Each structure stands twice: as C-alpha cells, then as structure tokens.
Amino acid sequence: NAGVTQTPKFRILKIGQSMTLQCTQDMNHNYMYWYRQDPGMGLKLIYYSVGAGITDKGEVPNGYNVSRSTTEDFPLRLELAAPSQTSVYFCASSYSPGGGGYTFGSGTRLTVV
Amino acid sequence: GQQVMQIPQYQHVQEGEDFTTYCNSSTTLSNIQWYKQRPGGHPVFLIQLVKSGEVKKQKRLTFQFGEAKKNSSLHITATQTTDVGTYFCAGPPGETSGSRLTFGEGTQLTVNP
Fold this sequence. Notes:
The structure holds two protein chains of two kinds. Chain A is 0% helix and 50% strand. Chain A contains no helices and eleven strands. In chain A, strands 2, 4, 5, 6, 9, 10 and 11 form a seven-stranded mixed β-sheet that branches. In chain A, strands 1-3-8-7 form a four-stranded antiparallel β-sheet, with no helix packed on it. By secondary structure, chain B is mainly β. Chain B contains no helices and eleven strands. The radius of gyration of chain B is 13 Å and the shape is globular. The chains are: A mainly beta, B mainly beta. The interface between A and B is medium-sized, with 21 and 26 residues.
C-alpha cells in the first residue's frame, strides 16, 4: 500500500518553462488536494478535487492548472514558471473532506531560476 | 472565512522540558486534527478529536479539544529530540466533517539535546 506518491521529488525550472507534477494515490480516496508550502510557512491550498472529473480552486490557484480524469491521479500543471512558484508542493488525499485525516505525499521541491 | 490560529509560532526547549501549542478557530469545528511535519518531511496525521472536551493521549503527547469546539491544545511531556518538527492543527468548520480542513500556520518546535 503506497499511499500518495508524488514525482518528481526535486526539479529546477527556468523562468517561463512549464512542467507537470504527478500525484497518484492507491487508497480509492475521492478527495484530493494540492498544497504549496513556502519555507517556514504553513500550507496553502492551490486546487482540490472531490472526485474524478470535478476540480475547484483553492486559495492560490493563479499560475496552476489541474485535471482529474481518474480517481487515482491528480496532476498539477505549472505554465510559464515564475520565481514566485519556488516552493515545496504537497499532494494529499482523504476519504472525507473534513474527517479521518489527510494522507500527504512526500512532496516535490521546485526551484524556479 | 474561517481562520485557525496557532500559538506560539516557534518554541525552543531543552530536552526534557514540556511543550504546549495552542490552536484557536474563529468558528466552531466539527473535529480537530493534528499533524506533525519533521524537518524536510511531509505532514503526517497524528490524531482526530471529535467530542467537546475530549482528551486523548499518545505516549507523551496529550491532545485536548475545547468545550466550545473552537480551540485545542497539544502538550508534550518531557520532550525528546525526536519531537522536533512543526505541529499543525486543522479542522473543518461547522457541525459535520463535510467541509475541507483549514490548517493553522503551525508551531515549529526545536529541542536542544
């Protein structure tokens, strides 16, 4: 049982480049989330999904896009990377939106130069 | 919107001292959850409290949910170097767990050996 798997673990992007952060879970959770965490700071919600085919914006969606074609996968797309997107990105999933705990992936550390 | 505040933001203790972090929500929560994030790691779900006034223990950690279900605390007795990390509280607003979690900004604990 792998839980939530994120790839890649580290990435350096140049300004203006694009990339997709991959996230997959094997717990059959309907709810999935993308957070970013800047150094020494808390978690900011970028996008979330309540099930396959349904996504919605969180607090800080600008510069990002998501899709949810299957229950398992929830990729995050960065278009035209900017230095302000340098952060650690965490994907999470849960059985319920507010109960039972979120399971987080190990994160993707992204640097935009 | 709902706000979840945690104090203190940072806490530095000598090994063996006790530690407490407090969590306060602007609205009533259906439950309170606590997470631990080790340096360089990802948040890991520790526990969920649901009932008003509930107290739960995990070895040296004691978690409490306030009577009004708007505040919570985490107390660590006789800290060890393995307790180092950031502790986040989180909760969904309202009477049920049907809303997403709002995370506090976390309390960063460092322990001097």
